[in-house]
Specification:
- The protein is α+β, with helices and mostly antiparallel strands and 256 residues long.
- The chain is 42% helix and 12% strand.
- Helix 3 (42-53) packs antiparallel against helix 6.
- The chain starts with a helix and ends in an 8-residue tail after the last helix.
Length: 256
């Protein structure tokens, strides 16, 4: 018996299940332009929305709602709100960054068969919430956890998800009829795709590289690095392995 097997906690999943979870995490991508017209069934949508609803939330307040968009007319209104903000955003960059930005495909609002807007009702359980008494933004972070749950569940189902965040908040609220007191967290484009990329599109486009994980880990106090620590060495190996697995995955058949 290996040392790892001997020390495995009784609550750990079986190796096959653990592998599936990590595979889903490492192969998740922000999808923009690969959506297929194939419809997403209610059964699949139900599973991924249920997964989102089981996200952790501060004080168990469950501040989220899930607004499902299938109407072409509503999608056009959302897309118009995106175009206005996208045009403004381009002017915020300079030189080559602006030119590159204008070439990027940053949404699939019209192409994806389903849109899901996840929101946060910050007043859902009253003004005093366990865990939010001092960090008032914890309800927003809770809703982001719901986004991540949905995203990972969708990837496991073979669905692509694209998070569109280039909106004026008021314009998105107007397009979707969201009341002023409700905060839109994420407009997600959801659907089956022709393929997933080995790397995030912004990384492939040269916008930014993935940061080396060893540059992001400190010990005991902010800024204190230990590049010789065994943990750091293991992190470097695991990051390399994760990328190597992603590089191979797009070449595998969908049933693998």
């Amino acid at each position: 018996m290996s040392i790892e097997a001997a020390t495995q906690d009784i609550h750990a999943f079986a190796q096959k299940a653990r592998d599936a979870i990590y595979r889903t995490i490492f192969l998740r991508r922000d999808v923009r332009g690969q959506f297929l017209p194939k419809p997403v069934s209610d059964a699949v949508l139900s599973r991924i929305i249920t997964a989102a609803h089981y996200a952790p939330s501060v004080g168990f307040m469950q501040p989220w709602n899930f607004l499902v968009v299938r109407s072409a007319d509503v999608k056009r209104r959302v897309h118009s709100a995106f175009v206005r903000a996208h045009t403004e955003a381009a002017e915020m960059f300079e030189g080559e960054k602006r030119a590159t930005y204008k070439t990027l495909k940053l949404e699939g609002i019209l192409e994806s068969p389903v849109g899901i807007c996840i929101t946060c009702d910050r007043s859902r359980t009253g003004p005093v919430v366990i865990g939010r008494t001092h960090m008032k933004t914890m309800d927003l972070y809770s809703s982001v956890c719901a986004v991540q749950n949905l995203w990972l569940a969708a990837r496991a189902e073979g669905l692509g998800v694209g998070w569109v965040s280039i909106f004026q908040q008021a314009a998105l609220q107007q397009a979707l009829g969201i009341p002023k007191g409700i905060t839109p967290i994420a407009y997600l484009c959801v659907g089956y795709v022709s393929h997933f990329y080995a790397k995030p599109e912004l990384e492939s486009a040269g916008w930014l590289p993935r940061m080396p994980i060893e540059d992001l880990v400190y010990f005991e106090q902010w800024g204190c690095r230990d590049d010789e620590a065994l943990l750091v060495r293991q992190l470097i190996r695991d990051q390399a392995a994760a990328q190597a697995a992603a590089d191979v995955a797009p070449l595998e058949p969908a049933t693998a």
